[in-house]
Amino acid sequence: MTSNGKPKVAFFDFACCEGCQLTVVDSLQTHLDLLEAVEIVQFREAISDRGEDYQIAFIEGSCTRQADEERLRKIRAQASVVVALGACAHTACVNALKNLHPLEDVRRWVYGDQAEWYDTYEARPISAVIEVDAIIPGCPIDREEFIRVVKALLLGKKPPLPDYPVCVECKLKENVCMFHIGKFCMGPVTRAGCGAICPTYGDGCEGCRGFIPAPNENAMKDVLADAGLTVEAIMARFTMFNTYLVSARKADGEERR
Amino acid sequence: MKLMILDKSALAPMVNALRADYRVVGPQARGPQFAFDVITDPAQLRLDYNTTILPPKKVLQPQYERLLSFNRREYQVTPIIEATPTVLVGVHTCDLHAFLLLDQAFSREYPDAHYLERRRQTVIISLECLEPCDEYSFCRSMGTLTSDTGYDLHLTDLGTAYAVHVATETGRQILSRYATVREATEADVRQLNEVLSAKWPRFTYRLDFDAAELPALLGAAYDHPLWEELGERCLACGSCTNVCPTCYCFNVFDEVDMQLVAGERWRCWDSCQLDEFARVAGGENFRKARSARQRHRFMRKGKYLYEKFGELGCVGCGRCIRACVAKISILEGFNAIHQSA
Q: Which chain A residues are Cβ-neighbours of B53 within 8 angstroms?
C-alpha cells in the first residue's frame, strides 16, 4: 500500500500486441475514478515511471521463450496478486498457432536468415509458468470486465469469471442465432463475459475468450459439421484462438485413457 | 363480455393514441426473425409474426433488473421497483398460458414485488393463432392453442378487421379511450366462428399421446436411457431455458461503485442447464452431468411444475427446439418416452 492507502499496480507485457493494455488506457477515459482507487507505478504504454514496489501485477502476453520465465517469476515474487490480462496471457491466444508447426520452420518464416539470432519455444499461457490469481479473458479484453475485476480485487473478493458460454449473453440480448442465418459460431463452447459482442454485430464467435470449463467438444464438432464445415475447417475454428487449450485437453484425454 | 370489431386501418391510430399514455410493446422484425420491443412507430408492429426469439415474459421479468440500491457507509437499503404503464400487444395464446404460470410462481409463498407491480401495470392485448408458428410448434397438444383468460383484449384476424374480445374492464376502457371500434354484427360472429373452427386442422405437429399423461409418464422415466443420449448431445448453453416462456429462475449479484461504498443489487435470468447452476456452498454440484440437467428440464416442464401449480410447464411454443443448435427436441423426447413406456 502507498501512504494514501491505495494499492500499487503495475502492468507488464510479453508476447502480445498490447491491445489489452490499450483497452485499459481507454477504459480510464470513462472510469477516471479508477485512478482514485489505485496507484499505477509501472505501465510502459501510459507512463514513464518504473516503480518496482507493486502489489497487483497485470500481465499481458504469452510466454514464448525460456528467458520469459525468469521475468515472470520475478513479477510473481513481488506481486501479491497476479492477473492474466487478455487472451495471450490467459490461453496463449494466436501465439500458440506456431505450436502446430516445427519451431525451426516458424523461426525461419518470421526471421528469415537471421532465425538463429532469436530464441523461441512453444507459446504458453503465463499460468503454465507461474500461479495466476485472476483472469481477464478476451482478445482484446472487455473494458467493463476489467473494471469489475479491479473492483472485486479491491473488495478482497474472488474476481468474477463467467463459467457459462457466450450463448447465454447472446440469447439475453435476443440476437438472431448465427446458425439460423448460415453463419458459424463458437459461442456454445466459449466463455461468456464479452456480451456476445461479435454475434451482436453479425459475426460468429471465434472463441477468443477460451473454452468454458467443461465444453462438449464432440457435440460442438457435430453442430459445425451439420452446419456444413469440413473437418479441417472445424479444427481451424477450434485452434485459431485455442491451440494451447485444444492440445492440453487432448493430452489430458490421452492420459485418462 | 362483448365482441367488438376493429378495422385494420384503425390499428395504427390506436397504437399512436396508446403511445401517449403507455409504453407500447409488440412484435417487430429482427433480421429474418421477430422480437418483442418498444413500438416507436405503428409501422414496426408486426402482428403477422410467427414467433419471437425470446418470449414476451421479458416484459414482466426482464433479462436484467435492478432490485435495490445500498450504501455500506450509511447502512441504507432502498428497494427499486422498475415498472412502466405498458400495453403489450400481439401475445400468442401459448405465451398467455405461460403468463398464468409465471403469475403463480411469482405470487405464491414469496410474492415478488418487482414482478407483481409490472404485471399490475401491464395491459395485455393477445392474438388468436390461425396458423402454426413453424414446424416446431405443438401448442395444440399442450392445450394452449386458445385461451379464454389472461388477457384484457383478444384479437382474431378476420381479414380486413380484427374481432376484439373484451375480457376486462381495463380492456373496455382501452377500447373506448384509444380506439375506433364498432359492435360485432351477427355476420361478424358467424365469420369469427368459421375462422376459429377452420384453424385446428392446420396444427399437425403434436404429441403422440394426451399431455395429461405427461406427469405420470415422466414419473416412471427417471432412469430412462434418453437422458444419457441427450447429455451426449447437449452443449449446456442454456438457450432452451432462456427462450422458454415458463422458465423463471434468476441469479442475484451486486454492482458497487469504485469507492466500494454504494451500489445496486441486480438479478438476471439463470439456467438450470449451465454447469454451475446447482453448485452449492461447500462446492458440491448436485446436477453435474448434462444428462441430469436435461432430465431436470424435461421433469420441470412435464411433471414438477404440474405438481406445484396444477399446470404443465410446457406450453408447446417450440422455442426451445428452434433455439437448440444440437437439435434436441422436447417433443421428440416426450414421444420417445411414451413409445418406450
A: 171, 174-177
Q: Single out the residue of A120, A122, A45 nearest to residue A86, CA to CA.
A: A45
Confidence band, pLDDT 50/70/90 cuts, at residue B1: low
Distant-in-sequence contacts of B39-43, Cβ < 8 A, 24+ apart: B39/B15, B39/B89, B42/B11, B42/B12, B42/B13, B42/B15, B42/B16, B43/B12
Contact B325 A37 (CB under 8 A): no
Q: Are strands B250-256 and B182-183 parallel, antiparallel or unpaired?
A: unpaired
**Could you give the angle at which helices A243-256 and A231-240 cross, rounded to 10 degrees?**
110
**Minimum Cα–Cα distance from B276: chain A residue:** A163
Class of residue A49 by CB neighbours under 10 A (exposed 0-12, middle 13-18, buried 19+): exposed
Q: How far is A198 from chain B (nearest CA, A)?
A: 16
Mean predicted confidence (pLDDT) in B25-37: 98
ipTM confidence: 0.95
Residues B215 and B275 reside in one and the same domain: yes
Answer yes or no: is B69 within a domain: no
What H or E segment, with its residue span, contains residue B102?
A: helix B93-107
β-pair type (B122-127, B86-92) = parallel
Contact A167 B235 (CB under 8 A): yes
Q: How many A×B Cβ pairs under 8 Å?
A: 101
* Contacting residues of A for B242, CB less than 8 Å apart: 168, 171-172
Neighbour-count burial for B72-93, b at 16+ CB within 10 Å, e otherwise? eeeeeeeeeeebeebbbbbbbb
* A-chain residues near B243 (CB < 8 A): 171
**DSSP structural state of residue B302:** I
Looking at residue B317, its pLDDT comes to 97
Give the model confidence (pLDDT) of B271-299 as tens digits.
Answer: 999 999 999 999 999 999 999 999 999 99
Cβ neighbours of B290 in A, within 8 Å: 216
What pLDDT sits at residue A156? 87
Q: What is the mean pLDDT of chain B?
A: 96
Low-confidence ranges of chain A (pLDDT < 50): 256-257
Min Cα separation B122/chain A (Å): 21
> How large a percentage of chain B has pLDDT more than 70?
100
pLDDT for res A256: 46
Domain around B50 = 2-62+80-202
Could you tell me which of A219, A225, A193, A188 has the C-alpha nearest to residue A204?
Answer: A188
Which CATH number applies to A8-154: 3.40.50.2300, 3.40.50.700, 3.40.190.10, 3.30.70.2690?
3.40.50.700
pLDDT tens, residue by residue, A171-189 = 999 999 999 999 999 999 9
State how far Cα A138 lies from the chain centre: 5
- Asked if A212 lies within 8 A of B275 by C-beta distance, the reply is yes
pLDDT band at B48 (very low <50, low <70, confident <90, very high): very high
B134 and B100, same domain (yes or no)? yes
Nearest CB partner across the interface for B237, out of A36, A168, A181: A168
Q: What is the pLDDT of residue B205?
A: 84
Over the stretch A7-64, which tens digit does the pLDDT of each residue have? Answer: 999 999 999 999 999 999 998 888 888 888 899 999 998 899 899 999 999 999 999 9
